[in-house]
Amino acid sequence: MKVSFFPGCSLEGTAREYGESIEAVCCSLDIELKELSEWNCCGASSAHATNEFLSIALPARNLSMAEKAESDLVTPCAACFSRFKTAEKVLTGTSPVDVGVPFKGEINVLHILDFLCRQEFSGGIEKSVVKPLNNLKTVSYYGCLLVRPPRTTDARQWEDPMDLDSLVSQLGGEGVFWPYKTECCGGSLVLSKVDIVRRLCGRLFDMAREAGAECIVTACPLCQANLDTRQEEIGNENGITYDIPIFYFTELMGLAFGNKEVDKWFSRHLVDPRTLLQRKKLL
User: Would you give the end-to-end CA distance of the chain in angstroms?
Assistant: First the structure.
């Protein structure tokens, strides 16, 4: 299968392990990600706060290119996904805005999690698992942009999404219930309201530990970076040692698929997950 792919701005920087694990997983599942030629930034997260026209025009150009290619558009970033879905609704609504690029809404806009959790890939995922994630206790963290607001994202289960949970189970891991899977981590406030970010992240760490989780699994590069980088400072502030690995879901897929590059991905994490995985005899 071939789809248009919008990598976004983070896969060549803070989220390199996310991009590499996505490529590896899709290769295992015979999925060809065709990167949009000459794509531009979608405008997240400043455009919609500074220039309403640009907040639609920037993602619209990418949507138009994907539609010309007659291929659904897949993106790995929750913020990019949110901007694309917002633009899609504005461009195809009852009073569409003209931003100078054609878009009829004839393609689907999908986050990579939604895409890989399609039923058509379920069999391929099960066949690819050679190292089940036995006894790995995880909590699934979707963040606030993947499913909300539902009128924009078209999410069916915006209060209690289950794709990540089901995928972890399919990989052999143990999903632990917690009620914080769609709470905000404060990713958009990391430069302006650090005190709020610390409070939000600290609550997520505390609740994950209280639930009995050994790690957090996410599908958003902003959430992963925020949760991975904040543990030491919040722990020092509160007199707590957290040391909770924050995985991209595609990293866990690669681990379960027996991919040989996983050690390279995990080495880039600030909270090194390899100690936990070695203790679980998964690495």
Answer: 31
